[in-house]
Amino acid sequence: MSYRALVIGEGIAGLAAALAIAREGCVSICAPSNGWRRGSTYRAQGGIAAALGEDDDESRHLKDTILMARGLANREAVQILMEESHKAVAPMLEAGIFEMTNPSHPTLGREAGHSRSRILHAPGGLTGRALARHFYQMAVSHPRIHFVEGFSEKLIIDDQGRCHGSWIRTSSSDVMAITASATVLASGGYAALWQMTSNHPFSVGHGLMLAYDAGAELSDLEFVQFHPTILSQDEPRGEALLLTEALRGFGAHLVNPHGERIMKDHPLKELAGRDEVARAVYEESEAYLTLRHLTPERIYAHFGQLAELLSARHFDLARDLLPVAPGAHFAMGGVCTDSFGQTRVPGLYAAGEVANTGVHGANRLASNSLLEALVFSKRIAEHIQKNLHLPGDFPTTDPPLLHETASDAEILQRLGNIMDKDFGVIRDPHLMNQGLRHIEALQYRYNHRILRLCRLIAQSALLREESRGAHFRLDFPASDVKWAGHLVHSLSMGSQFRPA
After folding, report:
1. What does the pLDDT look like over 17-26, one tens digit per residue?
2. Does the N terminus or the C terminus of the chain have fewer Cβ atoms within 10 A?
3. Do 258 and 168 fall within a single domain?
């Protein structure tokens, strides 16, 4: 069967795109079993940023976003995000997803980098879980949306370089072609390449490499945001518990073992930019998040679900010193798109964390990512509806041959701590070169897309000889105006630097 669109992934970006496209045509969603529970949307404890307060407006939100992006944001993309933000969150307000101060106005939280309280949260603190469930329930009951359990192995590209869907490996290991006039990558980011991560183990950048191999461009791969407050316990990759930034917006402190505040000398204290807070926590031998100075009843009322998750790990949110460490959290880099989510490959779009719309620059402003997914998914749907039609027939191609000789899990185990140690919060040139050599040795032994992506990340980090946003180098600790631009990678052109 041919579809109006094939959506690869079912986080908020994929589901929102599918629902919007399905108003006028049939959509297939390809994702693993229970995929809506496995992505970053489901794990997001932050919320959605929108300038809804009486003391706030879109221009302030734009200014904060541009400032946090450290000189690399695409102002046009940020302007679109701001202009469409109220319309994007309105249906969820009507659906009763967010905590309300009164029947007519939502409760607005504060997070790092925001000059105003503008974060919409679900009651209990696990906003992403509430959003993922809401969108999935709408999609699974939609008559024009068809779910296929499986993984995209390779995009179907014709002789003119146009995308017509994807080869899908189903749960029974069969390979089938799903053809569509438009293909939307919404497969998430690549922060699970690091051992210490807030992401599900599936978030290793497969979507980026699908696009790259099809002829699309990738950019800003060196910019990976490390969340400063991940519960520091020895847990398997992907099982670490993130302690939401909303806790610091609520008044939580970061302290060292002596009880001294780590961020006491910064004018914004714990609400400084994530890049600055992550480095400060990283440089401590031990760091803790504490809410002991706040009223327990208020804490449990606002963060009840998070408190339950901590209780299962034998911590009390209101009374304990919570050990924290930075972990890879969000990839600013991704597949290059225009303001309608189009990649360089005709018929191929990208939305959510797999995409690089230009909104986040070198350092994402907290809680802008869910908003970005909603806004640009809707724009993708609008573009598809206006510009693409089902062709009379689709090209026939042969199923892809699998060349990878190891599983994702085996490769990730062999990568071990290479990404953490050599391409982490603070980057040493000697360790980066050592890490690149290790990655190249593994790539020589195993032909695997994960290693190819890691090599591009490592090369990008070595090429950018400055510190900017989430990319901090010991040997170049300051930003340099000559690096105000983007490292772009493609199969046809290799790696290039493009001024912003």
Report:
1. 999 999 989 9
2. N
3. no
